[in-house]
Design a protein that fits this description.
The complex is a heterodimer. By secondary structure, chain A is mainly α. Chain A has 4 helices and 2 strands; from the N terminus they run H-H-E-E-H-H. Chain A has a two-stranded antiparallel sheet. In chain A, strand 1 and strand 2 form a beta hairpin. Chain A is rod-shaped. Chain B is of the alpha+beta class. Among the domains of chain B are: 176 residues, Nucleotidyltransferase, domain 5, CATH 3.30.420.40; 107 residues, Actin, Chain A, domain 4. Chain B has a 6-stranded mixed sheet with strand order 3-2-1-9-10-20, with helices on both faces. In chain B, strands 11, 12, 13, 14, 18 and 19 form a 6-stranded mixed sheet that branches. In chain B, helix 3 crosses helix 13, helix 5 packs across helix 6 and helix 10 packs across helix 12. The longest helix of chain B is centred in the last third of the chain and has 17 residues. Classes of the chains: A mainly alpha, B alpha+beta.
């Protein structure tokens, strides 16, 4: 068998006429035609392809890029370590900015009856005269409406 | 003990000993021909005459080495008696890897080098690091070794990296990447040509040759676009920007040639045989993707913006020096006109004076740096920073077996 650059014998599919790879490489041993009849108790005499078997060096052994990336993600990363899959910011500690439901300007006031936010007294005149259903519609825009089942 | 330097790129392997002047280029892929259904490893494809519809199987996936069954076949070919005649057990190896390589892949490289091939020692480092070592010769013209401050722009097959180096260490927060490389430009050219002229979607090999022979980077895109208006392949010699590329017929020529520059192959060809590809504004519009990746649908900035961002991410005191020591390496950096265009674009955005240097052969830029590392020329005389000599850097086989795979990977991260 031609020796290749990988420092071992060329790996090829094992066949019945393989010469055995002897653990103690001082002498060759004839391949055994019939294992049982010989009453062998020295297993070194039997052909055992160990690391030269083709499955070991096949593509199944190496991970492809998707698996490598998945493995990296599954590792234990410190909480504030920036990675491509964890760029979410933590929840904010500052109070929420409120905007008027009618005009969109900054809203400092809230109508206690309906929880509609408004910018100034002028806007409140409009809020007072809103038809009954439309208040809930304004609140629904920011997911604050009361839904009665 | 001879040192083998292997610049393991996703397009080609640049391999050679430290005693060689220039490396051998072996395509890093296994190719299969369509009609004759034969498989060629690495550079054996040059012996084949049937190169239409070539199917490539590359060991690299998006720029990272994951398919070892393919890579082992190519490396066996590279180390064989026909190419480099290497006996791994008595050779030191310097191998390059992509930037920010995965730990898994680094371990697999170490394992293959030491367990499978049984090399005597290994230095595994990003390709840009090797290019930085050889930068002194390109930028200053002497053999003074690695400059203290250098910005390496490596435009390769899979992507383009901009990496600043200071005193031999990379400045990690200044590293920038643009996902436009030779592969993207070849695909872009394939699609454009297939839409306009002939269907070349299967012909990556031929389109690659066309790109290398015909494409250039224009210094003023809109002016050249106006000049190329109405030109279809420079017929009747009216437009200097257009040319006609004669496609190969696999009997006279293998890759094709530009009409008028074909030499022998052209003389043997009669006019009726020739299948001609007229190229005009594709010549400079394709490499424009390097500066405007938005053209190809990538939401990234161009390499000029990457250079400026990389420099601005570094310490204020280093910025001027980095701008003056920009090194352009990589296969795609061999495009004519790229250096001037990048120089003008970056200078327009930078308050410092910009100087971009390109080695005579940008493809082997990283390999030449590896050779200087192997020969011990890393640090200029009188430098105050500690040199990363090969002796400290390399991991011998005995050390690898003692440290084990994880600590072996950690050994190299010390030198990043």
């Amino acid at each position: 068998m031609p020796a290749n650059k990988r420092g071992g014998k060329k790996s090829r599919p094992s066949s019945a006429v393989d010469t055995p790879v002897h653990m103690d490489a001082t002498k060759e041993i004839e391949p055994l035609a019939n294992f049982r009849e010989s009453g062998i108790n020295n297993l070194y005499a039997v052909a055992k392809p160990f690391k030269r078997s083709p499955e070991i060096m096949s593509s199944v052994r190496w991970k492809n890029l998707k698996q490598i990336i998945a493995q990296e993600q599954a590792q234990e990363w410190p909480i504030d370590f920036p990675t491509y899959w964890s760029i979410d910011a933590p929840p904010s500690l500052l109070p929420q900015k409120k905007y008027c439901d009618i005009t969109g300007l900054p809203a400092k006031y809230t109508d206690p009856k309906t929880n509609v936010r408004y910018h100034s007294a002028e806007v409140y005149q409009i809020v007072k005269t809103l038809p009954p259903g439309s208040e809930q519609d304004y609140l629904a825009l920011r997911n604050a409406s009361v839904v009665l089942k | 003990m001879p040192t083998l330097i292997l610049d393991n790129g996703s397009y080609s392997i640049k391999g050679g000993y430290a005693t060689d002047d220039c490396p051998r280029l072996i395509p890093n892929a296994i190719t299969r021909t369509k009609r004759t259904k034969r498989v060629y490893v690495g550079d054996l494809i040059d012996t084949s005459t049937d190169i239409s519809g070539l199917y490539y199987r590359s060991p690299f996936e998006r720029g990272f080495l994951t398919r070892w069954d393919c890579e082992l076949a190519v490396w066996d070919r590279v180390f064989s008696n026909d190419v480099l005649k290497c006996t791994p057990t008595s050779t030191d190896l310097i191998v390059s890897e992509p930037m920010f390589n995965f730990g898994q892949i680094q371990r697999s490289v170490d394992e293959i080098v030491f367990e499978e091939y049984k090399f005597a020692s290994l230095v595994r480092t990003p390709a840009t690091r090797l290019a930085a070592i050889g930068a002194g010769h390109t930028i200053y013209g002497d053999d003074g070794g690695e400059p203290e401050c250098v910005l390496v722009v490596d435009i390769g097959h899979s992507f383009a990296y901009v990496v600043p180096y200071f005193q031999g260490r990379q400045i990690s927060e200044g590293v920038r990447r643009v996902d436009v490389g030779g592969r993207m430009l070849t695909s872009y050219l394939k699609e454009t040509v297939s839409f306009r002229y002939w269907d070349m979607m299967d012909e990556a090999y031929i389109m690659n040759a066309v790109k290398e022979k015909c494409c250039f980077v224009s210094s003023d895109f809109y002016r050249d676009l106006d000049a190329a208006r109405g030109c279809i392949g420079g017929r009747n010699g009216k437009n200097s920007l257009g040319l006609e590329y004669v496609l190969p017929d696999f009997t006279n020529s293998k890759c094709g040639y530009i009409k008028g520059q074909g030499g022998e192959a052209e003389q043997q060809m009669t006019d009726t045989d020739a299948q001609v590809l007229p190229l005009c504004n594709e010549r400079f519009a394709i490499p424009e993707a390097l500066f405007n990746p938005v053209d190809v649908g990538l939401e990234q900035g161009g390499i000029h913006q990457a250079v400026v961002q990389a420099v601005m991410a570094c310490n204020e005191r280093l910025r001027g020096v980095l701008m003056a020591n920009i090194l352009l390496v990589g296969g795609t950096a061999a495009l004519p006109g790229l250096q001037q265009r990048l120089q003008s674009e970056v200078q327009a955005m930078s308050p410092y004076r910009v100087r971009i240097s390109v080695p005579e052969d940008p493809i082997t830029g990283a390999w030449q740096g590896g050779r200087m590392l192997a020969q011990g020329q890393t640090v200029p005389e009188g430098a105050t920073y500690s040199p990363a000599t090969v002796a400290e850097w390399q991991l011998t086989r005995a050390q690898y077996q003692e440290l084990g795979p994880d600590r072996a990977v950690a050994h190299f991260t010390k030198f990043i």
